[in-house]
Design goal:
The protein has 527 residues and is of the alpha+beta class. It is 50% helix and 16% strand. The chain has a six-stranded mixed beta sheet, with helices on both faces. A hairpin with a 4-residue loop joins strand 14 and strand 15.
Length: 527
């Protein structure tokens, strides 16, 4: 009897190991899929959704978000890149590649019979040590140092499809962030204050930064003014159209005189609203999109045009806050509240053509809020969307610098430096921990390795030479992808914020720890 008990005990020992290996393999598969799109010479992925929409991108978070990942452990890497996107905004590919490499290292350690808990605790300590090493090699930066900010934005844009336009887009991103914060005291940037508007037509070079407000639709109705100076702007949330009956009810008109009366009433009702709007002195009207009925009907538009009031309709609900903050006005929910103090004032509101269509531009806003609009142009939808994602990444890079004002070199330099320092540090440790630290240090070399591989260099000789140069004390030596050689990366202006690297190492180690600690997957019954 006891023999049988032993047997079942022995069988169970094997299962957690199998589960661990299957988790590691699944997560590594995700990491390998995305590895080729790391760095300036990384490849792009074409993603086709079920609806037939095509996306071309090399932004790690976007690729993983669109991928259908079924394995729960692999899904953790998707969550990881989302976390990096929220925390730092850039380095979403790097973080997944590092996590894949750490998993590979932990698999080798597991093979040697080291307990998963030991590995996971050592990795945690190694991650903390890495962050302090990175802080040690970073260079503090001031927000007034525009050059450094431009360099880091350019580095972020260089690995994107729109890299050839980085000289146009970088200044836009830097100025946009600096306009919406107070450099002296702010430690974060609310990216909702920077609105990105995409418009087809033109090229990415035509992108511009607009101080003021832009609506990407033309003015409503015809015959109204297309340019208003000394504008008084109102944002209304009520409808200028005849009231409707409730859902189930209907009004039956049996007589044509009644019909006439209904139409007259309707006209009177609308005229009343329009007169009241005019009385307050408003000459530009922004109307929120309405779901239940037309926000404004043709008759109302006709009256408004006669009164020389410019109308922009269909303003999205989520844009209301941004519009109010920019114009320094308050939304008007009903006619009774329509007071002069609710209005915003601006010098000029005009309709300008952009490409094939028109946009409405408000400039010279008095006591405007700290917001800014970036108008992005592109020759086709794919380029336009990728340009928007790239600008978002570059804005995030500047946001990182506002949060933590320090820069480090790019091009695989910090990773190699970390790897060497951790190796040195591991010599002072004893037992299993030393082993795990070494594995962690080796795993970090995957970033320069992949950079070299994607640039078509010989990865092994490149990384060996890089390690050699760093061992001689050249801290800022990295892989120069453009020249295909190893040079001092700071001279090439390849820099990145400290936060991107520290959060990448920290989050990757955390994810690997959670994957290592799983020893069983239980499927629950669907309700």
């Amino acid at each position: 009897m006891s023999g049988e008990g032993k047997k079942s005990e022995y069988k169970d020992k094997d299962k957690p190991t199998q589960i661990r290996y299957s988790n590691i393999t699944a997560a590594k598969a995700v990491s390998d899929a995305i590895r080729t799109s790391l760095g300036p010479r990384g490849m792009d992925k074409m993603i086709q959704s079920g609806g037939g929409d095509v996306t071309i991108t090399n932004d790690g978070a976007t690729i993983l978000k669109q991928m259908q990942v079924l394995h729960p452990a692999a899904n953790m890497l998707v969550e990881l890149s989302k976390a990096q996107d929220v925390e730092a905004g850039d380095g979403t590919t790097t973080v997944v590649v590092i996590a894949g490499s750490l998993l590979d290292a932990s698999q080798k350690l597991l093979m040697k019979g080291i307990h998963p808990t030991t590995i996971s605790e050592a990795f945690q300590r190694a991650a903390v040590k890495s962050c302090s090493i990175l802080e040690g090699i970073s260079v503090p930066v001031q927000l007034s140092d525009r050059e450094s900010l431009l360099k880091s934005a350019t580095t972020s844009l260089n690995s994107k499809v729109v890299s050839q336009y980085s000289n146009v887009l970088s200044p836009i991103c830097v100025d946009a962030v600096l306009k919406v914060i107070d450099p002296a005291k702010d430690t974060n940037v609310d990216l909702r204050d920077i609105k990105i508007i995409k418009k087809l037509g033109g090229t990415v070079e035509d992108a511009e930064l607009i101080e003021g407000l832009v609506f990407d639709q033309k003015t409503a109705g015809s015959g109204g003014p297309s340019k208003v100076e000394k504008a008084k702007i109102a944002l209304i949330q009520f409808c200028i159209s005849p009231p409707k009956t409730d859902m189930e009810n209907q009004v039956i008109v049996s007589d044509y005189t009644q019909m006439d009366r209904v139409l007259r009433e309707e006209r009177q009702y609308i005229l009343n609203i329009v007169k009241q709007i005019k009385k307050v002195g408003c000459n530009v009207l922004l109307i929120q999109k309405s779901i239940l009925r037309d926000a404004v009907n043709d008759l109302a538009l006709h009256f408004l045009a006669k009164m020389k009031i410019m109308v922009v309709k269909d303003i999205e609900r989520e844009d209301i806050e941004f519009v109010c903050k920019t114009l320094n006005c308050r939304p008007v929910a009903s006619l009774d509240h329509f007071q002069p103090e609710m209005l915003g004032t601006a010098d000029v509101v005009e309709e300008v053509s952009a490409g094939e269509s028109k946009i409405v531009k408000i400039s010279g806003i008095q006591n405007a809020g700290k917001t800014i609009t970036v108008l992005v142009r592109g020759s086709n939808k794919l380029v336009l969307e990728e340009a928007e994602r790239s600008i978002h990444d570059a804005l995030c890079v500047i946001r990182c610098l506002v949060k933590k004002r320090a820069l480090i070199a790019g091009g695989g330099a910090p990773e190699i430096e970390l790897s060497l320092r951790l190796m040195e540090y591991s010599q002072t440790l004893t037992g299993m921990e030393q082993y795990c630290f070494r594995a962690f240090a080796d795993a970090l070399e995957v970033v320069p390795f992949t950079l070299a591989e994607n640039a078509g260099l010989n990865p092994i000789s490149t990384v060996t030479e890089l390690r050699n140069r760093h061992a001689q004390g050249e801290r800022t030596t990295g892989i120069n992808v453009r020249k295909g050689a190893i040079t001092n990366i700071l001279e090439e202006n390849v820099v990145q914020p400290l936060l991107v690297s520290t959060s990448a190492v920290h989050l990757a180690a955390e994810t690997v720890r959670s994957i290592l600690k799983i020893d069983d997957i239980v499927n629950c019954m669907g309700r």
